[in-house]
Amino acid sequence: MKPGSDDGAAILLIAAVAGVVGIAVGIPFGIVLSRRVSNPGTRIAIRIAAIGGAIVLAEGGALAAIRMGASERFVLSSGDRTRLDVVVSREYRDEYKDLVSHPKFAQVTRGKSPAEIRALATSLTSRGLQYLDLPDLQDWARIKLRMAERSPKLCAGMWKGRVDDPTLGARTLTELGEPDARAWARLSARASVHALEGPPPPVVTNEARMLALHQIVLKLPEGDRPAAMADMFKREQLSDERACELMRMILEGSRDLEPELQHAFLRFLST
Fold this sequence. Notes:
two-stranded antiparallel ribbon, 2 strands
């Protein structure tokens, strides 16, 4: 990419593509809903839906903070010819080339301010994850689980919907090493392209959600199941250790689901 190119706005989107805001609002909203619904199964589904919003972005802005190698500084122009001075990591250009070259990408970023582009990145990545095929979503869940295992504090934050240190996710993702950081970049960019190209896939049914959750809980020792179901509705009341335990239970348990159900459940968790 050359200085002065019309793709300058792309870099801001790339930098912000992991910055989904769902973690700040997903779980509290789910808690409020669960208290208003009498059917226990429906409450569980709502609670898990809220968890999905948190899982998507516990790492908040991780991609922007990744510095695996040398960076280059460019002076770029956005669609409206506004000059932008942006630091770009050269390591991830290949992962984002399909997004940057997409015709709709130029349309949606033309004339937008940096703040507007970052907000757009938030929306594209969040909306696009549910489009991914099963192997990609398996990779997404694998990376999330590795991050949870690497940082107990981040793991608890995924469940509770709050991470006090905004750089924790970025550092944790970087610590996983280049292969996972690159895979995360690829998945984020691919999700954004999907979001640009069409309407979302069908909504995952409540029956599929509940079946997946039921099968995950059944893997636990019988004596642990009632507590696990009860704690599904708790957030700040839980210790960080218990919150992380539940988060890992969901991510680990999803791996044993049969492919069709697993795909539906991971799509559900990613929204």
